[in-house]
Amino acid sequence: MTLAPSIPDIRRIGGRIGAEIVGVDLAQPLDDGTISALNTALVEHKVLVFRDQQLDDAAHVRFASAFGPLTTAHPTVPSVDGNANVLNVEGGEGARANAWHTDVTFVVAPPKATTLRSLVIPPYGGDTLFANTAAAYADLPEHLRTLADKLWAVHTNEHDYAPHPQFRTDEAEQYHKVFVSKRYRTAHPLVRIHPESGVPNLFIGGFASSILGLSNTESRDLLRLLQAYVTRPENTLRHHWAVGDVVIFDNRTTQHYAADDYGDLPRKLHRVTVAGDVPVGADGAKSYVIEGDEAGHYTPQAAAS
Prior knowledge:
The protein is α+β, with helices and mostly antiparallel strands and 305 residues long. 22% of the residues lie in helices and 24% in strands.
């Protein structure tokens, strides 16, 4: 069996985030050298883009598995029929993730990385934006960094990126019921130390609902202030999809946003996520469950914590 070359061509595509990988065929098994180089590039660039790939679900799962053990598709949303690791990301009403977030932070061990594969792309719109949360932390004034280092946030799947009430439909309400069919609330450090690079980053996003020890008003104001640093244009990358694109991003130090600007046109991607560790804060303390369980049915890393 022919293996891909062990030295991929890595081309930076953003000032602070993002690289394109050229000359790697993800339909073929990857050798250890290639996997190591790609993981190093993932930690450095945070988002890796592979163009013109010809993958089915099995090859997609094999590619994601190169980065570690996989989660199941989602803690509450069903997987693609016949593949427990694959989530269908389709732009139906209620399922559009048009708010900045980090995937599945409402469980105690969120994914290490997310892989997305494009299947159906509208002729316009539907881009995904990515943000570098480590750069955001580095941008903070010293006094804000000192404050953020000490704070913890509550993350919950009763998320705040459901459609505005005036736009809600029966389909949106049904999707929301599935999403929150089991409630999760987890305390994470506001500043997470990356387990591989050791670099601190702002670990917030759309599932962060409040800050421990602060009122709702204080929490909202402070989260909005910090979130503004995350989404500064300098810290972001906008990916314009084409059919056959595969993107992997480091879920431990990024946020992302799927732009809802394609009306009722079809848009479909498949998602496979790599299991991650329990976040650790600046003081060495680990995240912990407030409500729900450790989601062992979703991620094998929860049992290992």
